[in-house]
Amino acid sequence: MSETRESNSRPALVAVALLLLLFFVPILYVLSVGPASWLANHQYVDLETTRVFYWPIIKAHDTFPPLQPVLQGYVSLFE
Asked: 67: which DSSP letter?
């Protein structure tokens, strides 16, 4: 009987793991812009490569004015 429970719970566990992954990866991507900015400013990473990788965030910053102070404040924490 315990084998049935384990085999039934595996798809649920995979589904939960995928949902958590889909939730946290975008958050980690946005949060990584601060450390990436620091790395680029200290020439550990090429600035142009950083701009290419973070172009969605840069585009959002440029086109959505309420987001600008939030992103600028967050990135300034890493200066």
From this structure: G
**Digit-coded pLDDT (tens) for 28-69:** 999 999 999 999 999 999 999 999 999 999 999 999 999 999
Domain range annotation of the chain: 25-79
Nearest to 30 by CA among 47, 48, 53, 64: 53
Q: Give the pTM.
A: 0.78
- DSSP letter at 43 equals T
| Residue at token pair 């600035």 | 47
- Identity of the amino acid at 43: Q
Helices (H), the chain: 2-31, 33-41, 47-53, 55-63, 68-76
